[in-house]
Specification:
Blueprint: E1 4-6, H1 16-19, H2 29-38, E2 43-47, E3 53-62, E4 69-77, H3 86-101, E5 106-112, H4 116-124, E6 128-134, H5 141-152, H6 155-161, E7 162-169, H7 175-195
Parallel strand pairs: 4-5
Antiparallel strand pairs: 1-2, 2-3, 3-4, 5-7, 6-7
Bound molecules: coenzyme A (COA).
Residues 21, 23-24, 75-77, 82-88, 111, 115, 117-118, 120-121, 124 line the site of coenzyme A (COA).
Length: 196
């Protein structure tokens, strides 16, 4: 049994059991503190009955006008607490914050294409692929590799370094946005087929 509560600064000293995972990014303390200071409502954690951290979600709100949206910066669950529905619950928490408090138009997030478990989870939660980004984790190389891909049409680069950018519209907004999104998705697929 567990309840979801807001993250505190002290939690940053006890999240090693959750963060020691190849798919969980560990940032410097200033990064987490900025989130806690700016978007505390987006930072939630679950503890087990013995006080051990089970998982957390961290996010923010950003964008302008119709692009005003919630963003999932991290969602991660300790190995011993997985497959209990915790990540799904943390995602619902963040979506509710985006919807109810900030009235965001959608929630987005990035996930490595190789992270099968997370990709499956996001699909199940209703997220759809918006676009794929090459070299997200290698800084400046991102753009260069993109150009390289267009010039030389190297499919391998895409598979190795692509991230999927998931996009989830909140229920409260118009269906026309979803149709527009589907159209954009089809257009992107067509465009990609031309490049490969
Ligand atoms: C991805 C992660 C957060 C899932 O956490 P979780 O609490 O185990 O997920 P849930 O129990 O809420 O599962 C939700 C759904 O995801 C899918 N899923 C979760 N674990 C899965 C697994 N091992 N194999 C296949 N599908 C899985 C299932 O569809 C599941 O629904 P179901 O149990 O009703 O079938 C967790 O594995 C994790 O922390 N991974 C490392 C960090 C990470 O990858 N974060 C995401 C980065 S973008």
């Amino acid at each position: 049994m567990t309840t979801t509560r807001q993250m505190t600064c002290d939690d940053l000293l006890r999240f090693n059991n959750v963060n020691l995972d190849q798919y969980t990014e560990t940032y410097h303390q200033g990064f987490y503190l900025q989130y806690l200071a700016q978007w505390p409502e987006y930072f939630a954690v679950n503890d087990s009955p013995d006080g051990r951290m089970m998982g957390y979600v961290m996010g923010k709100v950003e964008g302008k006008h119709k692009n005003w949206h919630g963003h999932v910066s991290a969602v991660t669950v300790a190995p011993e607490a997985r497959r209990l529905g915790l990540a799904g619950r943390l995602m619902t928490y963040l979506e509710n914050v985006s919807d109810d408090i900030h009235h965001g138009y959608f929630v987005d997030l990035y996930v490595r294409i190789s992270n099968d478990v997370a990709v499956t989870m996001y699909r199940k939660l209703g997220y759809i692929i918006y676009r794929q980004i090459i070299g997200y984790y290698s800084g400046k190389e991102v753009r260069e590799k993109r150009r390289e891909r267009k010039k030389r049409k190297k499919k391998k680069i895409i598979e190795n370094e692509t991230l999927i950018f998931f996009f989830f519209y909140s229920h409260s907004h118009s269906h026309s946005h979803v149709l527009l999104l589907l159209f954009l998705l089809l257009f992107a697929l067509f465009f990609r087929m031309l490049l490969i």
